[in-house]
Design brief:
The structure is a single chain. A hairpin with a 2-residue loop joins strand 11 and strand 12. The chain is built from 16 helices and 18 strands. By secondary structure, it is of the alpha/beta class. Helix 3 crosses helix 4, helix 9 crosses helix 12 and helix 10 runs parallel beside helix 11. It has a ten-stranded mixed β-sheet, with helices on both faces. A six-stranded parallel β-sheet has the order 15-14-13-16-17-18, with helices on both faces. Strands 2-3 form a two-stranded antiparallel ribbon. The structure holds GDP-alpha-D-glucose. The site of GDP-alpha-D-glucose (GDG) has 21 residues, from strand 13, strand 14, helix 12 and helix 13. GDP-alpha-D-glucose binds next to strand 13, strand 14, helix 12 and helix 13.
Length: 459
């Protein structure tokens, strides 16, 4: 049998970081969604991963981890500022998330975005061998597909966007919209988390880049580009396995006991303004004030992983979250009964799963989210069939997880009612819903996602 083509993965970050010093320096696989999604396919097909190591300075020396060759791309201090903090996270990230905070447009950030994309494309072309598949990831590298195509005209290139693709009304703001679209259209296949994002893209590709065609297939420069919705998922079996492990179950029981056996409402997010953490806290605060819930019965736990702290909007969100947690606790905590536990740090995956197991209600209330893997992970860990997922309509995951309690997070009154409904839900209803949710995730896990996408490029 013919072996499947080798992969060239191009993503902003490398899947590993360097640990140790001097001659003892080595690469260690990083935790994280994209890494666990891509590792099995890479181990199976072999391949190379092109990415940045997160620091300022020259590219690190090539390395190898878990059967994957690592090729680092170096960024200067000024490129970290202008390309990464600037264009990626202060222009594109807010613009693509409904402009929840105002996107900034600085002409001095555009050239660095081009330069860095070109460096990734050059590295990809150098690693490329005949018949390889090239898979470019996410908003940081939207120019790379076309730049790779210029260097390797016959390469098969796929691009996947992990965040939403905005509607025309917002995308049109971007002074460099045509260049971005032409960059993306260098791909053979462009994948989005949802059908809505795919449709948004097709509309603007026709309007601003001269592409023609249908919702599924565009033509440009006499090439065809396939556009598809291909929702990402999680390694379902891996989460089930961690959730079943005796040490994790012990830890979950310990957490429950430490919280005094109260019903636990859980939030797990990067500390990002897109995730709707303050609104969720305000809703809980008002429920305590209205005496619809009490600290004798309920406790909220918010795990907030620090993120992009030097980018505008993040510090404000952190301040608002911390102020609100302080207010709620000042008003309602009792000895031995804290109202809100707030952890601003990242936990090990095992500890994270223990919290999923201990949580009676999972609150996933982003204002906008490409997919949201936390929602899927919670569901997959609930192997006893109980637990309630409250899920924002504006997360990509809401398209699949129809049996969650879906809510508009800006509608605080309905959010409050939904939280009460979740806390009071009968066990039979929980089980009925959870069974459907679990089968949604199991039927479409991360391996199905990567297979579907690679098959489309391979086609
Ligand atoms: C982007 C898109 C899309 C969280 N806290 C801890 C921890 N996590 C892990 C979760 C989950 C991941 O981080 C977060 O993934 P999300 O999907 O929820 O959100 P983003 O980081 O914004 O991801 C998103 C995703 O890309 C994939 O395409 O779904 O829409 O915004 O896996 O488990 N992991 C550990 N400790 C923590 O404290 N170990």
């Amino acid at each position: 049998m013919k072996s499947p083509p080798r992969l060239v993965v191009v993503a902003n970050r490398l899947p590993a970081s360097r640990v140790g010093h001097g001659p003892g320096i080595r690469w260690e696989r990083s935790p994280g969604g994209l890494v666990s999604a891509m590792s099995p396919v890479l181990e199976d097909r072999g391949g190379v991963w092109i990415g940045w190591d997160g620091g300022a300075g020259p590219a690190p020396r090539p390395g190898r981890v878990g059967g994957v060759d690592l090729r680092g791309v170096g960024l200067s201090r000024s490129e970290v500022e202008k390309y990464y903090h600037g264009f990626c996270n202060t222009t594109l990230w807010p613009l693509y998330h409904d402009a929840i905070v105002n996107p900034e447009f600085h002409r001095s950030w555009w050239e660095p975005y081009i330069d860095v994309n070109r460096r990734f494309a050059t590295a990809a072309a150098r690693a490329y061998r005949r018949n390889n598949l090239v898979w470019v990831h996410d908003y940081q590298l939207q120019l790379a597909p076309r730049m790779i195509r210029e260097r390797k005209p016959n390469a098969r290139i796929g691009f996947f966007l992990h965040i939403p693709f905005p509607p025309d009304e917002l995308f049109a703001w971007l002074p460099w919209r045509s260049a971005i679209l032409r960059g993306l259209l260098g791909s053979d296949v462009i994948g989005f988390q949802t059908q809505a994002s795919a449709e948004n893209f097709v509309r603007v590709a026709k309007r601003y880049a001269g592409a023609e065609g249908t919702e599924r297939e565009l033509t440009i420069d006499r090439r065809t580009v396939r556009v598809m919705a291909c929702p990402i998922s999680i390694p379902a079996a891996e989460f089930e396995k961690i959730a079943a492990s005796p040490s994790v179950r012990r830890k979950a029981a310990e957490i429950k006991q430490q919280l005094g056996g109260r019903k636990m409402l859980l939030g797990v997010d990067r500390l990002d303004y897109t995730k709707g953490i303050p609104l969720r806290l305000h809703a809980f605060h008002e429920l305590l004030q209205d005496r619809k819930l009490s600290v004798h019965e309920c406790v909220m736990v918010q795990i907030a992983v620090p993120s992009r702290e030097s980018v505008p909007g993040y510090e404000e969100t952190r301040r608002e979250v911390e102020l609100t947690v302080g207010r709620i606790n000042g008003e309602f905590s009792m000895p031995g009964k804290v109202a809100v536990h707030y952890f601003r740090r990242s936990l090990s995956r095992e500890d994270l799963v223990a919290y999923y197991l201990a949580a009676d209600v999972m609150l996933v209330t982003p204002l906008r989210d490409g997919m949201n893997l936390v929602a899927k992970e919670y569901v997959m860990c609930r192997d006893d069939g109980t637990g309630v997922l409250v899920l924002s309509e504006f997360a990509g995951a809401a398209r699949e997880l129809r049996r969650a309690l879906l809510v508009n997070p800006r509608d605080v009154e309905t959010l409050k009612k939904t939280i009460v409904q979740a806390v009071r839900m009968r066990e039979s209803d929980q089980r009925m819903r959870m069974a459907m949710l679990r089968s949604n995730v199991r039927r479409h896990d991360v391996h199905d996602w990567s297979r579907a996408f690679l098959e489309a490029i391979d086609d």
